[in-house]
Amino acid sequence: MISIGSEIPAVNVTVVTPEGQEAAVASELFAGKKVVLFAVPGAFTPTCSAHHLPGYVVLADEIKAKGVDMIACISVNDAFVMKTWGEQQNAEAITMIADGGAAFTKALGLTMETGDFGGTRSQRYAMIIEDGKVTTLNVEEPKQFEVSKAETILAAL
């Protein structure tokens, strides 16, 4: 599993943009920036939609005021789902990233198998990345929502 001090892997992801989507290499996307990256098990799921993403939307200005260049949400969903979910959540300040085939999540060692819920998904986590290197990593225990929420990450900044 990725840990504090690890470099973000050079794995392809899809960044959702107002114009549609664009391919990116994660290590390049986060290079030279201070980034808060949080992962959810699935777009439109209860905790993710009611608390996780909305918390970052509400606190985006405060997080960015701490010198953060990008707040990004990643999920093992396709770009179309991430775009629609971001629009419905008014997440203009959040960079929505699709990890459709779970390549990024697998490279981090943060997958979980959910069976009929959706198969391979991401564990719930949040990390702070500085110039491509992990400086904070908060991985939730199963069915928990404490260490990855926006308030916790804001306090860590």
Automatic annotation (TrEMBL):
Any GO MF annotation of the entry: thioredoxin peroxidase activity
EC main group: oxidoreductase
Domain named Thioredoxin: residues: 2-157
InterPro entries on file: PRX5-like, Redoxin, Thioredoxin-like_sf, Thioredoxin_domain
Enzyme Commission designation: 1.11.1.27
Catalytic activity from the UniProt record: a hydroperoxide + 2 glutathione = an alcohol + glutathione disulfide + H2O
Alphabetized Gene3D superfamilies for the sequence: Glutaredoxin (3.40.30.10)
KW Oxidoreductase (keyword) present: yes
Keywords from the UniProt entry: Antioxidant, Oxidoreductase, Peroxidase, Redox-active center
Active-site residue list: 48 (cysteine sulfenic acid (-soh) intermediate)
Gene Ontology biological process: cell redox homeostasis; cellular response to oxidative stress; hydrogen peroxide catabolic process
GO cellular component: cytoplasm
Domain of life the protein comes from: Bacteria
Pfam families: Redoxin
Protein family: Belongs to the peroxiredoxin family. Prx5 subfamily.
Function of the molecule: Thiol-specific peroxidase that catalyzes the reduction of hydrogen peroxide and organic hydroperoxides to water and alcohols, respectively. Plays a role in cell protection against oxidative stress by detoxifying peroxides.
Protein name (database record): Glutathione-dependent peroxiredoxin
